[in-house]
Amino acid sequence: MDKAAVDKALEHISRQIIQQHKGIDNLGLVGIRTKGRYLAQLIASRIKQHQGVELPVGTIDTSLYRDDVSVTPNRPILCTTQVPFAVADKKVILVDDVLYTGRTIRAALDALMDLGRSRAIELAVLIDRGHRELPIKADYVGCEIPTTVDETIKLIIDEGLKHYKVVKLKDPTAKKW
Amino acid sequence: MLLNSKDFLEIKQLTVPEIELILSTAESLKEISQRDIKKVPTLRGKTIINLFYEVSTRTRTSFEIAGKRMSADVVNISTNSSSVLKGEGLKDTACNLEAMKPDIIVIRHPAPGAPHMLASLLDCSVINAGDGAHEHPTQAMLDLLTIREKKGDIAGLQVAIVGDITHSRVARSNIWALTKMGAKVTVVGPKTLIPPYIEQLGVSVSYRLAEVIPKADVLMILRIQLERQHGGFFPSLREYSKLFGLNLEKLKAAKTDVLIMHPGPINRGVELDPEVADGPYSVILEQVTNGLAVRMALIYLLLGGVDI
Prior knowledge:
The structure holds 2 protein chains of 2 kinds. In chain A, strand 6 and strand 7 form a beta hairpin. Chain A is of the alpha/beta class. Chain A has 3 helices and 7 strands. Chain A has helices spanning 3-21, 33-51, 103-114, and strands spanning 27-32, 57-60, 91-99, 120-128, 140-144, 151-157, 164-170. Chain A has one domain (3-170): Rossmann fold, CATH 3.40.50. Chain A is globular and about 45 Å long. A 5-stranded parallel β-sheet of chain A has the order 2-1-3-4-5. A two-stranded antiparallel ribbon of chain A has the order 6-7. Helix content of chain A is 28%, strand content 27%. By secondary structure, chain B is an alpha/beta fold. Chain B has helices at 16-29, 58-69, 90-98, 114-121, 137-151, 169-180, 209-212, 237-244, 248-251, 274-277, 284-303; strands spanning 47-52, 73-78, 104-109, 125-131, 158-162, 184-188, 204-206, 218-221, 259-261. Chain B has a 5-stranded parallel β-sheet with strand order 7-6-5-8-9. A 4-stranded parallel β-sheet of chain B has the order 2-1-3-4, sandwiched between helices. In chain B, helix 2 links the parallel strand 1 (47-52) and strand 2. The two termini of chain B are 16 Å apart. The A-B interface holds A 61, 63-66, 69-82, 110-111, 114-116 and B 1-2, 21, 24-25, 27-32, 35-37, 39-43, 70, 300, 303-308.
């Protein structure tokens, strides 16, 4: 997926969010780790273009809520959970780049609930690659890409949110979470 | 990324990337203590034993709260209410504790090297919470975190460690930590309390506090350990306080952004005047807050991520 395709997917998600919420009152976006936050920022700026309202954007790190903390040899360095709005009584949309087994989302739900009781939680993902291991489904999907388990899907994005694309890699060492 | 060892025994053996991993993990974990619900489920089902052969308020409580905030089960053993009083040796105590399958034993012991002996003996992780006059590595890590937060970068800073260098494990761990991170360390104190050949650790030595204060970015004041001063190293506490205690008058010569640090507990009026300890340059309580974050980071890094 090149930048234009990613833009199209993000536009699709943004319009769906606006339509679903008939306006966007009381809504907040929370990205999962750094890439989720970048995508949440991109979605927020699109919604601002359409509606003229800036949605608050936060970040959570799900590492502390994973079910495989003592199983995984390589863990990413923790990034700070930073949600600059009160989630209590807000509708929160979780944003992530790739939906795969669903385990990250399960962890993110727990992490989010520790921050307060939100009115509702929804899920937006740029890419759904299948192979769910938990009963989890996204509310907003940018694009579905069929994969096999020995492949990985990677969003490559820079801090300035200028250049981004999605690549599919053959990764025989990819360990299933 | 992970630590290279199952244990955390001394700063001396740590690499710079390991130190940076612990610091950045601690920075991320600080946020948990500011939540309404100060707990994450990460270490559910793990057990930590605090085995303290010396008294402690800060360190023991800090390890206990750190474990609990990460959802581990924490058990405290202090030697004055255990079978140590019946004459049980360290090795026996440790092996018996390990038979109950803890994941981490945190030990403070008056004998240097006691944690190292346990580490080689036991399969569980061992954390050194202070061994005699050898090292107090978690204290040095929290000091690094505090300095980094306040100053941005540790490399190039002038740090003065003031007081009883000979008997101080805090000094020893901090010398290793600060020099590894590129700070310039000067140790200051009466000649009787500075070990010979300490320059070999890469520090400079001064016997006059007044000549060190103006150039220091950080003044790390050590506690005069009254329990270790029976050797007559200085004539009186009053004289020590006059020559090496930090008060407002001496502080006038300091840089305007100097940091005053102290590992606690403070002997007010001996090494540190109350006006300085509670003054605007003091980061002593922030050190305690950071101590919690550093210990959460350590148990997270030691317990998570064992390759099975």
